[in-house]
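Standup notes
- DV: blocked on the single-chain target, sequence here:
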Amino acid sequence: MIVDYDRASAAKFNDYHCFVIDNREARANYQDVVLSPIVDRRIESAISQTLAAKGMKQDCAQPDFRVTFNTFTQTKTEVNDLGVGSTSFRRHPYFGSSGYSHFDIDQYEQGTFVVDIIDKQSKQLVWRGAYTKRLAWSAPNDEEVQKIVSELLANFPPTTAE
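- DV (later): unblocked, structure below
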């Protein structure tokens, strides 16, 4: 998990009490939307619940900040050398040994989930969190999404001591 934020805007974080989450249609205007609508709704719900647990409100006339999210996938290749060994052999009239090596090659999809916090007044990105993990064959369920979002937003808003 990686978190970064604009240190110059850190004082504003104490004044953040109300938010709005960009919906799928709004995000489609400025990024490729690759998630299914079902996963989108899971993420929006998890973000709402996590920020509400921090005392922030979603339904207000003038939100202080905007929340948006995106995902990226990348094919990764992992090569493991499982060791080098030798075996002896005997072929008349010769005696010797041979070496061998076993490599294991694994290709998989790695997904990165990014949450951005945008200051509503300045329209500037002020906080970003990213969570990366190896993807499973199925989409994450509600509990998995909530766990990821909670871990990521645990660092929002940042304390001034960070």
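- Follow-up: Strands lie at 2-5, 19-21, 65-91, 94-119, 125-134.
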